[in-house]
């Protein structure tokens, strides 16, 4: 797979954007999660209004060979299904409102013609089945065509119902509801490699579920102290290993990652491996603990590495080396001098996600001002791109962006003081097999692809 841009690498170009153009963004329309399915043919988004929107890729258009100057037309993603996954609820025992916001979506491997996904808000996880219907049964004995019951005494002959073609209809139906297992807010769900179980994590506990069983789960991690005043860290993210169904990792607000093996004990209180980078005493400040908190952890597709995102950087860890990461990439180091103002406006607590490309050779994560960053692990090149409607002409090549940190600003650079911290890219996804990426910017979903000459 090609690199991330610059030099002789391919260039990223705009493909499409989904969402409203209105300046006034409704809170419910803000995208809160993005996820490709295993084949990359479907792309799901969840929003703060509890809705799930699934996009399906259209078939590629093969252009005639004579049209050399026309761009190659790839299949675009169009809306396939939209449904309300979660509704706002109220916990009467604790007098707490439970938001409908979708925190995470995870696809299950496709077993038949239907697709399945897990979606979760703060408290309840749901398993959805998305299926197509293009035929309907006609010719019932006890019902008229309009659905009314017929008088049994007027039925004089037996009819055999037949299937008649109809307009394609996509149905989303809840198959399982996994509730009442989390006291705190769910931050992660991850489907296991056995495709029968999955884990869900909140601030203090991780539970293991069977996809067929909704009334009980196994608590595999519990870091809640006997006295809550002794609480020093919380769980921020968790994920199952892509190939070993007994292995999972979870990250903490202290910047540490624990790898656990479920074969060792039923309750994984003691980790098998503990990943932590020693802190440089010279760079310690009031904000050190906050910016070292890990907001996302992702295994590589190969299962050899894992990637973590903290506030200022992305780190790649070799599972065989616990004392320090093998690669560290600075995402927006120019913000280090702005931490005080970022603390005052609460941006320092933003939780950025990260993702791998299909071959684990490149990684992507978001930043502010609708910027997102890509890093090529082989060439160590990096690039900053912007998700904006201003350069959203079809097939328009994205220009690399640069941030000026002081002194004389060059023509194409943007000053660090003029960055818009309300425009942030927290959620990104990379197609599992191709160079197609999805970037969520507030209420808009941008899709970019590599330019094909």
TrEMBL record:
Name of the protein in question: Serine/threonine-protein phosphatase 2A 55 kDa regulatory subunit B
Bilayer-spanning residue ranges: none
Taxonomic placement: Eukaryota, Metazoa, Chordata, Craniata, Vertebrata
Record's signal peptide: none
Entry keyword Membrane: no
InterPro entries for the chain: PP2A_PR55, PP2A_PR55_CS, WD40/YVTN_repeat-like_dom_sf, WD40_repeat_dom_sf, WD40_rpt
Gene Ontology CC: one annotated term: protein phosphatase type 2A complex
Keyword tags: Repeat, WD repeat
Organism of origin: Esox lucius
PROSITE patterns: PR55_1, PR55_2
Gene name of the encoded protein: PPP2R2D
